[in-house]
Amino acid sequence: MRAALLFSLTALVLSAQTSAQKAVDAVLNDWHDAAAKADEVRYFGHMASDSVFMGTDATERWDKAAFQAFSHPYFAKGKAWSFKPVRRSVMFSADGRTAWFDEDLDTPNMGPCRGTGVLSLEAGTWKIRHYNLTVPIPNPLLNDVKARIEAHLKAAVK
């Protein structure tokens, strides 16, 4: 009897996690699809009002309003950006209302990228609260890339 109860509870928890996983995946996939189709309303509709987007440049840390202002010209031209997830891992808080994720992305203009972020459940809807886009650098290339970044920053100060 105890084993059956334990099995039932485990199945219920796994089912809830699977359902939440699917919901988070659906939001992130639709968010990326909205950008690829230049659907600005749909894209920003997935972001919480106090969300933050961090781009690949060290200066790119935008709240939602600033990111929307920066992005609007791209959406207005009918071509924003295209990020295709090729792998994603999602973890949930104990209460199931917060999700953390990391994803590997295939992009035509930037090459392989990685996105990491946080979503929260707001009135039954998952909203993106934080997204950080990075370009992973293979370890053997790091010293060369570091030197180029340092030279770029030094030149920018002049």
Structure characterization notes:
The structure is a single chain. The protein is an alpha+beta fold and about 160 residues long. It has a single domain, classed as Nuclear Transport Factor 2, Chain: A. The protein has helices at about 1-35, 40-45, 65-75, 140-155, and strands at about 45-55, 60-65, 85-90, 100-105, 110-120, 125-135. It has a 6-stranded mixed sheet with strand order 2-1-6-5-4-3. The longest helix has about 35 residues, at about 1-35.
User: How many helix segments?
Assistant: 4
Oligomer: single chain
For the residues shown, what is the average pLDDT?
A: 91
| CATH architecture level-2 label | Roll
| Residues in helix, % | 40-55%
Largest sheet: 6 strands, mixed
> Under the CATH scheme, which class?
Alpha Beta
Structural class: alpha+beta
The SSE string, one letter per element, is: HHEEHEEEEH
Number of strands: 6
Return the CATH topology.
Nuclear Transport Factor 2, Chain: A
Strand order within the widest beta sheet: 2-1-6-5-4-3
Shape summary: globular
Rounded to the nearest angstrom, the distance between the terminal CA atoms is 75 Å
Radius of gyration: 19 Å
Number of domains: 1
The percent range for strand residues is 25-35%
Attribute tags:
single chain, about 160 residues, alpha+beta, Nuclear Transport Factor 2, Chain: A, six-stranded mixed sheet, 4 helices, 6 strands
Compact overview of the structure:
With 158 residues, this protein is α+β, with helices and mostly antiparallel strands. Helices cover 44% and strands 33% of the residues.
